[in-house]
Amino acid sequence: MKKALYIIFLCILSVNLVGCIKNDAERPVDISQRQVSDEEVNQPGQDEREMRTITISVKNTAGMPVPGVRFSVPKTNIIQEAAINGDIKFWSEVKEVSIPKIPFYKMPSVINFDDYEQNEIEVVLKPEEVKAGFQLIFPEVKRQHNGSMTTIEGKVVDENDNLIDNEKINFDDSSLNAKTDDQGNFKVEVPAESMSYRIYFPNLDNKKYYQIDTFKNSISIIDIEI
Description:
Elements: H1 2-26, H2 38-41, H3 46-50, E1 53-60, E2 70-72, E3 79-81, E4 87-91, E5 96-98, E6 105-106, E7 110-112, E8 120-127, E9 135-137, E10 141-145, E11 151-157, E12 168-171, E13 177-179, E14 185-189, E15 195-200, E16 208-214, E17 218-225
Parallel strand pairs: 1-8, 9-16, 11-17
Antiparallel strand pairs: 1-4, 2-3, 5-7, 6-8, 10-17, 11-14, 12-13, 12-15, 15-16
């Protein structure tokens, strides 16, 4: 009798054990509680392996960033502008970008990403030549955002830091012009877009052009030493 009861007990235990195993197999697994190995963490996903970010840095020959340069993706409506540090980012699914001409610069019209293995592409805008006997200078520019207006302003002094007052300033290849006040300061509004300007002093015999890059919604503040 005891032996028969013992056999029945073993049968009931076996049935319950099989049921538990089956229920565990069917129960959803909470992956948020699963410990992930270091090897899995360091293994990039499929999207990450196929996609990369291309960073284009735009600078002039003086090594200064050129912000506001507009890049467009051919056959699309995508247009992006370089940030204040001259950088702009594209996903590698974009194969090439076009760049509009900026006055007074030699520059590529198209950048094809397939021509570059690296993820960082530096575009150096080389200035066009100035007239024979003249010198081209890139004054240091302090930029800051200022609503929807774009201006070039600054102060003009000589080599001894004396103010150059009431002096005419011309913009090469442009109808723009300006004049310093009695404190040597000047200010001129320019179109609110990415541009480059060359200014000079027609009444002074210093034979220098000063090239200034501007971009949207900014003030370009410069100090010029004659």
